[in-house]
Amino acid sequence: MGDPPARTVLAREALRAARAARSEPEFFALLARAGLLARLRAAPDQAGRPAGWSVTLPGLADRAGQPVWFTGGTLDPALRPRELRARWRAGQPGAGPGPGLFTGAARSQIYEHAARAAAAAARELADDRADRADRADVAWAAADLLTAAAGATGNPELARAAEAFTRAARAAWGRTPAPSPDGSMLRTAAYLIASSRRTRQPQPARAVRVMLTALAGLARTLAGLRAAQARRLQAAAAAAAAARLADVAATIDYGETISHLAATDFPRQPRTARPAPAAGSAPRRRGGSMIPPQSPRRPHRGI
Prior knowledge:
This protein folds into two domains: 3-79, no CATH class; 99-262. Helices cover 53% and strands 9% of the residues. The protein has helices at residues 3-20, 24-33, 72-75, 81-89, 107-126, 132-153, 156-169, 181-196, 205-228, 232-251, 258-262, and strands at 37-43, 46-56, 70-71, 284-286, 289-291. The chain has a three-stranded antiparallel beta sheet with strand order 1-2-3. A two-stranded antiparallel ribbon has the order 4-5. The radius of gyration is 24 Å and the shape is globular. 36% of the residues are buried.
């Protein structure tokens, strides 16, 4: 695997671990669980607190046979230690409901909580009296939630919506917003959704549809905010994300599950019915015996 593909894989897995973790130890544990090798660079003035970190894939080496390491900041600006710690600080007491409140909760409850957090975030973005920094953090945290939802469902259209929303959510000049209470709510929801992927509980489509509808409304609100800020490219990206979210939500049937949704390409293709055998056709052979074409099958009764 060359450097460009390796960089892409490392960035994807590291960002996924960052969104699921709530602390530095959990982050590096998730990197190890994903099969990545990580090493820390100690801070000279703070014992036990790394000043930086780098990651590689097992067997990834240069021509001289030396391992090729990538620092977190070179993979994505959101993976710098300062940005990671700012994300994790949002989970401290007083920064919104933490994951402990949802221990053992069904996935439907997690998605319903995410929907409520998205609705609250949309109200925050639409409020002209809200602090500008808080609104920037809400938009940035909402991108984490949408990315977690796309990863949980495996739906390619949701992944594209998450990419578009992330472009629209970036703060001006690439700054990392300070954590806000509503942003913390969204990050907690993203953490819960990312963590629920490791369980075998069913994911009811009704709750997912409610969440996607709320996220579509949040994306439309962000599009209006970016348009008012004369940031046209970001406004277009948010509008595109809203359209994709609404389309996916509209295709989900209440009776299906996320495992079915994840295995289905978007849009879903209708099943084609097999043509019935024509009357009077020749009998078919099965196991050496003749079976008349119009003989009804007896239902199999299990024991």
